[in-house]
Amino acid sequence: MPYIDAEKRRAARRKSYLVRKDKILAKEREYRATNPDAYRKIKLKHRYGLSFEQYQKMFLDQDGKCAICCDRTAVDVDHCHQSGKVRGLLCRSCNVGLGHFGDTIDGLRRAISYLQKG
Q: DSSP secondary structure string, the chain?
């Protein structure tokens, strides 16, 4: 019988956690909507270790353009997933493109070789 009570307690804790989780996420969404600049600064520091001033300097050094295509506006912070080191700012298309190749040089070389055959 004590085993069943333990299961009930675990189920109640899980349910309570899910209720709190929803409230926390709702508050975060509200904060993001009402304080977009402050949220951006927090996100830059937490995810990439960048201050907003460092981000602005990178943006200005790249003339606001993507470090790869040099055509579109740089909106994403590109970083190495192994080391966490920030490489530069990219447009969404170039950032997603690198991700599809697994951020690997070998994958990109194979893609270049494929394009050269065409």
A: -HHHHHHHHHHHHHHHHHHHHHHHHHHHHHHHHH-HHHHHHHHIIIII---HHHHHHHHHHTTTB-TTTSSSBP-EEEE-TTT--EEEEE-HHHHHHHHHTTT-HHHHHHHHHHHHH-
Q: Give me the helix-helix angle, 2-34 and 36-43, nearest 10°.
A: 120
Give 10-62 pLDDT, tens digit per residue. Answer: 888 888 888 888 888 999 999 999 999 999 999 999 999 999 999 999 999 99
Number of Cβ within 10 Å of residue 50's Cβ equals 19
Q: In this structure, are residues 85 and 62 in contact, taking their beta carbons and an 8 Å threshold? A: no
Look up the pTM and report it. 0.71
91-102 tens-digit pLDDT: 999 999 998 998
- Note the residue count of the chain: 118
The C-alpha atoms of residue 95 and residue 100 are separated, in whole angstroms, by: 9
